[in-house]
Design a protein that fits this description.
Layout (H helix, E strand, L loop, with lengths): L1 H7 L8 H85 L12 H18 L12 H10 L5 H14 L3 H5 L3 H8 L5 H19 L7 H4 L7 H11 L9 H9 L8 H9 L7 H14 L27 H5 L18 H5 L12
Length: 367
């Protein structure tokens, strides 16, 4: 209690100017300190703002670069959309185009069975038989001897050139006995137009000697005998057997081999293998006329370089339709021999050929 009284009664010290000054200085110092902190904070904020500005600028640059790339991507997307639309239109229009071309365009054979191949091959032969009812060997001959000689001479040349040459040859050497003892130089001169005349002269003289010495001057009617003669292979033998003796055979010449591969009857290129493969598709009795039908068609319509697809009677059955000219008018201009209104290859063709409108070939040297 005494202490309290003493406190109450303690005198109050007066405030001096010096004390006020110290308090003011202390307050100023405090204020300056706060101001420094504020300045530091402001600097930090400015630094952060600058960094943000740089980041914004970088972002804007990236955006600008992206905007530059965007048009290319947009173009690509547009092209893709157009491609999709084109495919959709093609699908819609394809049936119409197919319907418009069904009269001539064939159905492509896919994974054709052997039975289907046999049916198609035989149908092609029936169609060709109607188109070429006058089909015949296109070499002029009067007997087996003339036919075997003419067939040997037909290598590497046309039947027309042979037909224009053999009249002079047979007029001077009508029998194997005559040709067997002929002067080679004289025979060469006659055979010169057929090409390879020296080799051919050697073959026909040697063939004639073999006929005289081994077969009594007669052409044999067996395959195994014919192929023993100089210059005679299976092809020549089958031509002679089929057309001089009436014995079935398939003649695999360049036209026949080309067409049966084009029709996908076989992929073989060796003549013996082609003969076996095609022979298996037909009765043996049809082999000789089948050869004539195919060879006639290859010479007149189904050419090696420019097939006249638009004028082909078997186009719907042909897997190779479209390899040649498909326009009917242009295709008709490619037709040869009687189909194109031109002379045939024989100077003395069968009467059936003449009745069908065929024109005999002119003799050698005729204008």
């Amino acid at each position: 209690m005494k202490t309290t009284k003493a406190a109450k009664s303690a005198p109050v010290k007066p405030v001096t100017k010096k004390a006020v000054k110290k308090v003011a200085e202390k307050a100023t110092a405090t204020t300056d300190k706060k101001t420094g902190v504020a300045k530091k904070a402001t600097a930090t904020i400015k630094k952060a703002a600058t960094t943000s500005t740089k980041e914004t600028a970088t972002s804007e640059k990236k955006t600008a670069a992206a905007k530059k790339v965007t048009p290319a991507k947009t173009v690509a997307k547009r092209v893709a959309k157009k491609a999709v639309l084109a495919k959709a239109v093609a699908k819609k229009t394809a049936p119409a185009k197919q319907a418009a071309s069904t009269r001539t365009a064939p159905k492509k054979a896919t994974a054709e069975s052997h039975a289907a191949l046999v049916r198609r091959a035989r149908r092609i032969n029936r169609e060709l038989a109607e188109v070429y009812p006058y089909a015949h060997p296109e070499l002029d001959f009067e007997n087996p001897f003339q036919l075997v000689i003419a067939t040997v001479l037909s290598a590497q040349t046309t039947d027309l050139r042979v037909n224009q040459t053999t009249p002079g040859l047979f007029a001077k050497y009508p029998t194997p006995e005559d040709l067997a003892v002929a002067n080679p130089e004289e025979v060469e001169e006659i055979l010169r137009p057929t090409g390879f005349f020296r080799a051919k002269t050697k073959s026909v003289i040697g063939l004639s000697k073999a006929l005289v010495e081994d077969f009594g001057g007669e052409v044999p009617g067996r395959l195994e005998d014919l192929v023993k003669l100089p210059g005679v292979g299976r092809k020549t033998a089958f031509v002679v057997l089929g057309n001089a003796f009436g014995r079935p055979g398939i003649t695999v010449d360049t036209h026949f081999g080309r067409l049966v591969r084009r029709w996908q009857w076989t992929d073989e290129t060796d003549p013996d293998k082609v003969e076996a493969a095609v022979g298996a598709l037909f009765p043996k009795s049809e082999w000789t006329m089948l050869s004539h039908h195919v060879i006639f068609h290859g010479r007149r319509i189904c050419h090696a370089r420019k097939p006249a697809c638009g004028a082909c009677p078997i186009a719907p059955l042909c897997p190779a339709y479209g390899e040649g000219e498909t326009d009917p008018e242009k295709a008709r201009k490619l037709l040869k021999y009687e189909k194109g209104g031109f002379p045939g290859q024989r100077l003395n063709p069968p009467q059936s050929y003449l009745d069908a409108g065929g024109i005999p070939a002119p003799p050698l040297g005729a204008g």
